[in-house]
């Protein structure tokens, strides 16, 4: 087990949520204008947002590939050139662009290269509405909507919850050393939501399939985060898993340092101390009536911030 560090409470719960949902809302016109974003468009559908630094790098790349250029860059939008008109061609164009940027060290975000492909949606003719796939580390550069899974493993005795809390490895490219849900990870290309949960449960917590398959879907949270790497709108599918008292999550890969089994009051103390990744834990406490509207003045604002309506398309699964 890890050593603990006890800190005094510094943050309100709404302050925590605002750290992960910190991109301006449509009515915050002045704040939005500060970002000066340009939409990435495919067939009249907005599928991402580009910052000025990315636009500049795209222009430079286009100038080196003029026969013909892979992108059309206008004052008010960016799209793919007419010849880049299929899922496969768009994926190849993005792959070549990112390989060039990575070689030239154009963006620090690409230092966290994962060799994981994430789907970007917005083409009804593509598989499950996919427009192309992109390296995970590059998603903030394009401001595309990404999808992940959060699993809270818990023990319940005599009506009282205790939660298995993961401590992220200090070598993680994002939020190193922070506390996290029991299991969390992205949904890669060609994996279903359920398979992603089972995969992450084994890789991060050494939980076998026969246990992880009993995870119960409990909704989703959505938010839009701005970081030094770029723009990251996200949707996380939420799962709960009640674990037997004799089942102990254990680190399996290098992404988790250790696990704690904490009662709710201790979890809340560490949340308020700012030790949790901001998109974690609160949704479980709300869904299980631990955070209630009578006790939390910012209850509705917290819910709004955890359920942001995104303007980008998502998957279209065939029944």
Automatic annotation (TrEMBL):
Which stretches make up the Nudix hydrolase domain? 144-286
Would you say which domain of life the source belongs to?
A: Eukaryota
- UniProt xrefs under InterPro entries: DUF4743 (IPR031804), NUDIX_hydrolase-like_dom_sf (IPR015797), NUDIX_hydrolase_dom (IPR000086)
Matching entries from SUPFAM superfamilies are given as: Nudix
Pfam families from the xrefs? DUF4743 (PF15916)
Q: Name one GO molecular function term.
A: 8-oxo-dGDP phosphatase activity
Q: What is this protein called?
A: 10457_t:CDS:1
Organism whose genome encodes this protein: Acaulospora morrowiae
Classification lineage = Eukaryota, Fungi, Fungi incertae sedis, Mucoromycota, Glomeromycotina
């Amino acid at each position: 087990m890890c050593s603990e560090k006890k800190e005094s409470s510094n943050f309100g719960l709404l302050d925590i949520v605002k750290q992960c949902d910190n991109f301006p809302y449509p009515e915050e016109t002045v704040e939005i204008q500060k970002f000066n974003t340009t939409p990435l468009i495919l067939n009249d559908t907005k599928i991402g947002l580009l910052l000025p630094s990315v636009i500049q790098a795209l222009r430079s790349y286009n100038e080196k590939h003029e026969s013909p250029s892979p992108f059309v860059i206008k004052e008010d939008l960016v799209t793919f050139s007419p010849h880049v008109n299929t899922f496969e061609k768009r994926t190849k164009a993005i792959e070549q662009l990112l390989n060039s940027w990575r070689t030239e060290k154009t963006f620090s975000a690409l230092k966290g290269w994962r060799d994981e492909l994430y789907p970007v949606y917005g083409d009804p003719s593509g598989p499950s509405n996919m427009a192309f796939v992109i390296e995970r580390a590059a998603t903030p550069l394009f401001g595309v909507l990404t999808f992940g899974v959060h699993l809270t493993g818990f023990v319940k005795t005599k009506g009282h919850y205790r939660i298995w809390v993961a401590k992220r490895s200090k070598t993680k490219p994002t939020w190193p050393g922070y506390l996290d849900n029991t299991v969390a990870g992205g949904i890669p290309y060609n994996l279903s939501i359920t398979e992603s949960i089972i995969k992450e449960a084994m890789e991060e917590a050494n939980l076998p399939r026969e246990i992880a398959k009993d995870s119960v879907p409990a909704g989703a949270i959505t938010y839009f985060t701005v970081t030094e790497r770029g723009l990251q709108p996200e949707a996380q599918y939420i799962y709960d898993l009640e674990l037997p008292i004799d089942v102990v999550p254990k680190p399996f890969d290098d992404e988790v340092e250790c696990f704690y089994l904490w009662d709710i009051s201790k979890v809340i103390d560490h949340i308020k101390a700012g030790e949790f990744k901001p998109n974690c834990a609160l949704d479980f406490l709300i869904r299980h009536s631990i955070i209630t509207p009578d006790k939390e003045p910012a209850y509705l604002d917290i819910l709004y911030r955890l359920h942001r309506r995104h303007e980008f398309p998502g998957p279209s699964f065939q029944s």
